[in-house]
Amino acid sequence: MKLTRSIIFLIFCLNGYNMQGQNISKPKVLIITTGGTIASQIDAPLVEGPALVQAVPELLNHADIEVEEFVRIGSSKMTPVIWLSLVKRIRTLLVERKDLTAIVITHGTDSMEETSFFLNLTHISPVPIVMVGSMRSSDEISADGPANLLHAVRVSISPEAIGKGVLVVMNNTISAARDLLKMHNNRVDAFPPPESGYLGIIDNQNIIFYRSPVKPHTTQSIFDVYDLDSLPSVDILQDFAGFDKEILNYFLNRNNEGLVISSFAGGRTSNGINQIYNLPNDHRPVVISSSIKYGRIRRNAPSSSPIIIARDLPANKARILLMLALTKTQHIRKIQEIFDEY
Ligand code: ASP
Fold first, then answer.
1. Can you state the angle between helices 112-122 and 315-326, rounded to 10 degrees?
2. Which of 24, 42, 63, 269 qualifies as a FRET site for 135, CA 20 to 30 Å off?
3. Half-sphere exposure (CA, 13 Å, Cβ side) for 210?
4. DSSP letters of 20-55?
5. CA of 278 to the centre of ligand 1 (A)
6. Percentages (nearest 5) of helix, strand, coil residues in the chain
């Protein structure tokens, strides 16, 4: 009798059901590792992806975990080519693996703003992607990586994570990729709330979402990069007091497909930069983005110029949006519409 019951129990468990017939199978989460401080050790090479995840056994209380090491780099070495292969790899995996509930990506914080924004616009699927990093290396006292990773997995399987675009989990908070701002070099609270606030918070018991992003992302995005091997090249130029116009000339004559100026507040520019207003309107696009992190550029660009206003997007994200917009159109006013919408 006992034996029969154990066999039945085993069959139920194998099928993902308990003795009461309740579904006990756990969601499946794929953790894609890319390196960064979350995988780093003091004076030692970056930890391999699987080891990074094995160090947090609590993950298994919440999900069946699989790990794929994609790259192992400091995120200041991230490139658009790696972004493209990452989003393509994710697309392929999701075609092959209908059983995946969510994807968590471990990543360095240096370019987290960029990679998350890129994926937010090119991951054309409702399957949640949650990115996570840490500010302290894995062998430092009070390392923040393990808790951040556990929180990221919990957020990724939360039904409320669906439809909110790519999310970033750090230090008990949930941010929308579009709004993420790294503002501190060292502290665990390096990502303070953006102007629109965090999307939500995480505590030991609960995941609480307060709002949803309304700017188009993931399934609403028009940017399908699946067939591309490279992205249009776009440079960023920082304006400063006394800017020498020869620097601008160099960038205007360089072999790029667009330029982003990181301007003073409100989109104001030095005399050295101001010659962009004399460029013919069929020149390659020049985007003006404010280097001030909060607020937006309110004024519009002169209509017969190749100038586009980035509104509230910082230069690094304006560059990504321009690269993606250029895969759709070269038309300056249409690109401005994309900036106003996204
Ligand atoms: N060096 C790290 C990186 O890969 C910094 C970090 O992860 O916080 O971005």
1. 30
2. 63
3. 12
4. TS-B-PPPEEEEEEEESGGG-BTTBPPPPHHHHHHT
5. 40
6. 35, 20, 45
Both structure tokens of 235: 């440079």
The structure's pTM equals 0.93
pLDDT digit string (tens) for 98-108? 999 999 999 99
Does residue 305 contact residue 277 with C-beta atoms inside 8 Å? Answer: yes
The domain segmentation of the chain, as residue ranges, is 4-220, 234-341
At 261, which amino acid appears?
I
Domain 4-220 has CATH 3.40.1180.10: no
SS3 assignment, position 72: strand
**Of these residues, 33, 37, 101, 115, which one is catalytic?**
37
Residue 37 falls in the annotated catalytic set: yes
DSSP letter at 261 equals E
Q: Point out the least confidently predicted range of 17-21, 60-64, 100-104, 293-297.
A: 17-21
C-alpha distances in angstroms, 210 versus 30, 161, 169? Answer: 26, 11, 14
Q: For residue 220, what is the enclosing H or E element?
A: none
> How many other C-beta atoms are found inside a 10 Å radius of the C-beta of residue 214?
8
Tell me the CATH class for 234-341.
alpha beta
Tally of CB atoms within 10 A around 19: 11
Answer yes or no: is pLDDT of 285 > 60.
yes
Helix (H) or strand (E) holding 89: helix 80-96
The yes-or-no answer to whether 4-220 and 234-341 have a common fold is yes
Q: Which residues pair with 202 in a beta bridge?
A: 207
Q: Extract the tokens encoding 182.
A: 């790294």
Which of these, 295, 300, 291, lies nearest to 339 by C-alpha position?
A: 300
Residue of 38, 40, 186 best suited for mutating to test ligand 1, as the one with most atoms within 8 Å of CB = 40
Cβ(41)–Cβ(138) below 8 Å = yes
Give the atom of ligand 1 at the shortest distance from the alpha carbon of 110: 9
